[in-house]
Amino acid sequence: AKAEGRRTYRFFTAAMDTEARRRVVLADELRRGLAGGEFFLVYQPQVDMRQGRIIGVEALVRWRHPTRGVVSPAEFIPAAESNGLIVQLGEWVLRAAAYQTRAWMDRGLAPPSVSVNVSPIQFRHPEQLEDFIGALVRETGLPRGVLQLELTESALMEASMAQADVLDRLHRQGLKISLDDFGTGYSSLDYLHRYRVDEIKIAQEFVQRMVDNRGDGAIVRAAISLAQALELRVLAEGVERADQAKMLADWGCHEVQGFYFARPLPADEVEKLLAQRTVK
Ligand code: C2E
Ligand code: CA
Ligand code: CA
């Protein structure tokens, strides 16, 4: 057992070493990528199924890495969160989305809302976020109602007084707040009315399992009625098939996002859909 323990120990330190080294390299590359313009945004339409109309788009970040090709945010967002670069990256995303929205507005193409993901780490500096958005809105002349921030439950769970105040002020200035990945966090529900939440987004894992699993279906239905009772908008994400769309419509959730309707697309491709205002 002793030999086994020692072997495990050695293996573990070697693995940690590689992991630590990988993280340092990734941090350097992220910093360089941000300076070198390697990031770009794709936009996924959000659709009201009743008319097939596009009611918004969600901006999602991508990294065009010089040797590894396009890297998914699932790979680099956690790294950027652990070394603090997420604040800079998050500001880059907000600025890029705001300027893109401005350009769409000037051509009469802007959708009713443009959603941007805000990391809980970025939200730990709420005044910085508020000031940044304030400056950005002045700079671009965007009407505030068009920008929507997507925050996860964990960001709101930890919310301090300062954060609650910032959400309140942003909300009064017209910014919309969406609660992302609803159902996957601690599911304490009181923050839904304690903070200024406008919309809940039902997490895709529930949506994808609900057809085959009654428990997941019950959660989705409960989330829809909760939103209705609190007079919040409700959007289901990760809709991949017609039967899922049908089930959501039957349960009274008409706003959806997912591969079944449209994938996240580069700006020039999503523009074609924005021009016709629908996904089909
Ligand atoms: P999320 O905010 O929940 O975004 C939805 C993710 O689901 C996106 O993955 C999207 O491409 C994917 N998706 C959309 N429809 C479907 C579908 O029908 N089926 C399936 N299987 N997936 C679908 P993506 O773009 O890889 O982003 C992953 C996560 O990375 C996001 O999850 C979000 O947490 C984070 N992320 C992306 N962009 C940003 C950003 O600009 N800032 C921050 N802080 N996080 C971001
Ligand atoms: Ca999101
Ligand atoms: Ca989500």
From TrEMBL:
User: Boundaries of each EAL domain copy?
Assistant: 23-278
Q: What is this protein called?
A: Bifunctional diguanylate cyclase/phosphodiesterase
Q: Which residues of the full protein are shown?
A: 477 to 756 of 763
